[in-house]
Amino acid sequence: MKQALIINVTRMGDLIQTGPLLSRLREEWPDVAIDLVVDRSFAPTASLLTGLRQVITYDFTRLLDECRTQSKSLVTLMQETTAWAAPLRAARYDRIVNLTFNRQTGLLASYIGAPDLRGIIAGPDGGPIVQNPWLSYFTDLHRHRRFNRFNLVDLYAMGGSSHGAFSSMSIAIPGDGRAWADQFLQSQGRTVRQWIAIQAGASDVMKAWRPEYFGQTMARLSRHSDVGFVMIGTAAEADAIQLAMTTYRDSGGVAPMLDASGRTTLNQLVGLLSRCQLLLTNDTGPMHLAVGVGTPVIDLSVGHVDHHETGPYGPGHWVIQPDLACSPCGFDQICAHHACKDRIIPEEVAMLCLHALGRAPFPVWSPGARVYQSSADADGLGAFILRAGHVDAEVAWYAEFWRRFWYEDFTGRPSQVMSNLEPAPDRDGAMAWMREAGQPLRVLEQRARHIATLTRRRPIPASMLQREQALLRQEREKLLPRMMAHSATGPATVAMIRDIHNDGASELAILADQHVKAYRRWQQRIARVRTVLSDAPAQVERQPRSLPMVESTAAG
Q1: Which among 551, 427, 414 has a CA at the least distance from the CA of 488?
Q2: Burial of 121 by CB count in 10 Å (0-12 exposed, 13-18 middle, 19+ buried)?
Q3: What are phi and psi of 472, to 5 degrees?
Q4: With 70 as the cut, is the pLDDT of residue 513 above it?
Q5: Bridge partners for 129 per DSSP
Q6: Hey, which bits of 64-193 come out as E strands?
Q7: Whole-number Å distance between alpha carbons of 508 and 469
Q8: How far apart (Å, rounded) are the C-alpha atoms in residues 171 and 47?
Q9: Is pLDDT at 41 greater than 80 in this prediction?
Q10: pLDDT tens digits along 84-110
Q11: DSSP annotation of 329
């Protein structure tokens, strides 16, 4: 029997999003026993997942706090953690998938040990390195977000297992939670045919639509008979929820409205979401719970949230995203205006809610927003189809291109998703740039090869080696800004930077060989991009875009 261990200790939503990974592991290994390590506070969430042998908890929050404050010595912390992890080490897992990207869990994964380690692990010097191309991609996608079309759910599933059939997110609905929800909804004393759950708050105000807009949307919906609203959220979101409710009443809302915010256990919240016909929400953990119980979601993707990364997974959901040059903004940005939130118009959101409930046609949209419908694509991955609004032509073309490119690069399989039938909008300029970059790329690989040769001389010519390394760095740093600036070369350059710095070598010669491979792979990827861009549209239509693979990065 195969055994797999998953380490995921950060957020509720991340845990729910591991469901398809569990399915993929069972597809790969039908007899697999899967254990899950979580922070103690997330044990109730983990219990909602199906297909686990056991959930193993530890107080990682305390551990990280003590590491940060140095309230205990590192030796003491290591002794405590290794004592707790000793039974896991003795279990002799076949695979460990670490989905928590920090140094502490990397040390834990390496200590427990397995023949197949994926995600963050500890390098020879104790520093973190990333095993598996899908999970390496995840750590760096912030550097090319506008071209990313992989949902976190699929990065988990593909990185922790492999390609396979599409699997929707699914969680168990506790019986006590369902019974509580039925009683709670009946307490308002009026017949409501369609309940709409409303999540007006969020853990981060940056990713929350304005609460008063939620209230205005609800008031607009309340003009339709048999509709009712259920406010959900935590006690910490009370101010936003109260403002939404006050605005609803002041705007003439007449439909029943129940306030369950701050009053539900996790089981009760899951039961409540399962009894609602729709959830209107910011990007939150409850959004993923709703997806897991099969309730349609309308996700308001504002601030630094990008629905391509964390939006509702699988068919049956909708996303509204502002059409603004700075949207989505970077994770480290502080916005002074939050103008993206004003691009989404409450009345139009209300009409999409009615459409999702089967009570109205798809609405006409103002120019300030994009609307996406969630789906599953031909490769069995989650996807979003643009139904209204505009996307920059170059961004749209390269997003589709890099989606296919990385799927084929990481899996070694041809993508079944249709390739672009039109040439890249910037093809001539991109081709000219890649021709220009060809020689510098070859020089970098040649220098890396020469350095690898020098590391094998005895004695090692230290001064010559240092000089050659300095020249290589100088030439690389001169080339990198231009490579990063072009849509045709930027994402492959990000991957090269990860390859260069993500080494687990303990010997100089082995490290040099790894760098040679990184530069060669970079050059091969750029050559492949150039081949695709040079194809005429007619050629693209006649033949698949599956080109010879570069040196394999597929996860074993």
Answers
A1: 427
A2: buried
A3: -65, -45
A4: yes
A5: 121
A6: 95-98, 116-122, 128-131
A7: 12
A8: 9
A9: yes
A10: 999 999 999 999 999 998 888 999 999
A11: P
CATH, domain range 3-160: 3.40.50.2000
Distance CA 124, CA 117 (A): 14
Is the pTM of the predicted complex or chain greater than 0.90? yes
CA 51 to chain centre: 22
Cβ proximity of 31 and 183 under 8 Å: no
Report d(CA 91, CA 1) in Å as an integer: 12
Beta bridge partners of 54: 35
Residue 384 token pair: 């979003």
Rg of the chain's alpha carbons, rounded to an integer? 25
pLDDT band at 10 (very low <50, low <70, confident <90, very high): confident
CATH H-level superfamily of 175-391: Glycogen Phosphorylase B; (3.40.50.2000)
Q: How far apart are CA 23 and CA 32, in angstroms?
A: 11
Domain boundaries, the chain: 3-160, 175-391, 427-542
Burial of 208 (0-12, 13-18, 19+ CB in 10 A): buried
Beta strands in 66-150, from DSSP E residues, in sequence order: 95-98, 116-122, 128-131
Tokens of 531: 């081949």
CA 498 vs CA 3, 50, 73, 133, 305: distances in Å: 29, 34, 32, 10, 24
Identify any residues that bridge with 128 across adjacent strands, giving them in sequence order. Answer: 122
String of DSSP letters for 454-515: HTTSSS--HHHHHHHHHHHHHHHHHHHHHHHHSTTTHHHHHHHHHHHH-----SHHHHHHHH
pLDDT at 72 (0 to 100) = 83
CA angle 385, 386, 392 (to 5 degrees): 125
- Given a cut of 90, whether residue 116 has pLDDT beyond it is yes
- For residues 53 and 517, give the distance between their C-alpha atoms in angstroms, rounded to a whole number: 40
Cβ neighbours of residue 200 closer than 8 Å, sequence gap 6 or more: 208, 209, 211, 214, 215, 231, 233, 237, 240, 241, 243, 244, 282
Q: For residue 328, is the peptide bond before it cis, meaning its omega torsion is within 30 degrees of 0?
A: yes
pLDDT at residue 501 in the model:
87
User: How far is C-alpha 554 from the geometric centre of its chain's CA atoms?
Assistant: 19
Q: Which of 518, 522, 514, 525 is nearest to 548 (CA)?
A: 525
Find the range with the poorest average confidence among 21-30, 62-71, 82-91, 419-428. 62-71
pLDDT tens column, 365-407: 999 999 999 999 999 999 999 999 999 999 999 999 999 999 9
Residue-by-residue DSSP string for 164-186 = -S---------HHHHHHHHHHHH
pLDDT bin (cut points 50, 70, 90) of residue 504 is confident
Collapse the DSSP code of 228 into the 3-class scheme (helix H, G, I; strand E, B; otherwise coil) and give the result: strand
CA dist., res. 409 & res. 74, Å (int): 40
Q: In the structure encoding, which two tokens stand for residue 549, read together?
A: 């693979």
Q: What is the mean pLDDT of residues 483-489?
A: 97
Instruction: List, in order, residues 6 or more apart from 203 with CB less than 8 Å away.
Output: 236, 284
Identity of the residue numbered 254 = V
Domains 3-160 and 175-391 share a fold: yes
| Residue 347 identity (one-letter amino acid) | E
Tokens found for residue 76:
């003491």
From CA 397, how far away is CA 390, in angstroms rounded? 13
Cα 280 from Cα 309, distance rounded (Å): 19
CA 329, CA 304: separation in Å to the nearest integer?
5
